[in-house]
């Protein structure tokens, strides 16, 4: 049991980040059937990505924000942005659900993809600028909680989502059940309690709500989710969590 749990975490870190954890046989299957690994990977990735924020009170805010942006993509990679790109093309195409699903699978990069990726990167950079204006501890709390929250949202996609076709998304949805969401939810709540509960809760809930946006759209206009929606949800959730966390601190 312990060995499988460790394998699930290795699989999550190997898939969701660029960290050199190494894959072992069975890690992928352990990960896709263990939704609790999502927020654990989010905590690790969020903590590492937040390192540049330690300089929030010593360096200029734009420099810190740029460092945070680079750190996020250095730790988490850019492969999830492919989901944002495909979602962007599917958003702007005219046609029914079948046509939109075809566009999701199309490897051609359209205007919708370019615009959506640009907006996502700029939005995260501006979120980093907001973090750089916060006290160091508050900035780190928001960044880590947003990362845990967006991974909790991905766990919810796996546990409650309906896949529209064979592929990575279906591997997650087939490997999880509604009941298996209890474990990732408990881990996320533990993180909130461990750091700064009010602020962490806002950032975490904001990230989960951000994941809900592409999920809702996919259910309505595609008939379900796929791997691209998982990737897009990861990016959108992080952005929403960071911005709402900054807003919460500013208004407190």
From TrEMBL:
Q: Which cofactor does it need?
A: Mg(2+)
**Keyword Cytoplasm belongs to the record:** no
Q: EC no.?
A: 2.7.8.26
TM helices/strands, residue ranges: 109-132, 138-160, 172-193, 199-218
GO molecular function terms listed in the Swiss-Prot or TrEMBL record: adenosylcobinamide-GDP ribazoletransferase activity; cobalamin 5'-phosphate synthase activity
Pfam families (alphabetical)? CobS
State the pathway, as annotated in the record: Cofactor biosynthesis; adenosylcobalamin biosynthesis; adenosylcobalamin from cob(II)yrinate a,c-diamide: step 7/7
Query: Which BP terms in the Gene Ontology apply to this protein?
Result: cobalamin biosynthetic process
**According to its record, how does it sit in the membrane?**
Multi-pass membrane protein
Q: Which reaction does it catalyse?
A: alpha-ribazole 5'-phosphate + adenosylcob(III)inamide-GDP = adenosylcob(III)alamin 5'-phosphate + GMP + H(+); alpha-ribazole + adenosylcob(III)inamide-GDP = adenosylcob(III)alamin + GMP + H(+)
GO CC, alphabetical: plasma membrane
- Entry's localization field: Cell membrane
Primary place of residence? membrane
Swiss-Prot/TrEMBL keywords: Cell membrane, Cobalamin biosynthesis, Magnesium, Membrane, Transferase, Transmembrane, Transmembrane helix
What does the sequence similarity comment in the record state about its family?
Belongs to the CobS family.
The free-text function statement in the UniProt record for this protein reads: Joins adenosylcobinamide-GDP and alpha-ribazole to generate adenosylcobalamin (Ado-cobalamin). Also synthesizes adenosylcobalamin 5'-phosphate from adenosylcobinamide-GDP and alpha-ribazole 5'-phosphate.
Name of the molecule in the record: Adenosylcobinamide-GDP ribazoletransferase
Q: Which gene encodes it?
A: cobS
